[in-house]
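[step 3/7] fold_predict: job queued, chain A
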Amino acid sequence: MFSTSAIKVEVAALNLQGTTEEKIKKLYQHMQSKTRYIFVALGISEWPPMLHDEVHKKGYADC
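[step 4/7] structure written:
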């Protein structure tokens, strides 16, 4: 299980510099490169939302 501190270390390793917009863009690109979303249609509210640490560990989430 990933902890919030592990995610903070990962983000710090990105060495975000520049304007706020540039930092957000770099962080967004990093997350897009490692996370995928899938759509599962079994009915409305069949599954509870995935926790952030589970999404981080598996690299995907349902939307």
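[step 5/7] annotate
The longest strand covers residues 36-38.
The CA atoms of residues 11 and 27 lie 8 Å apart.
exit 0
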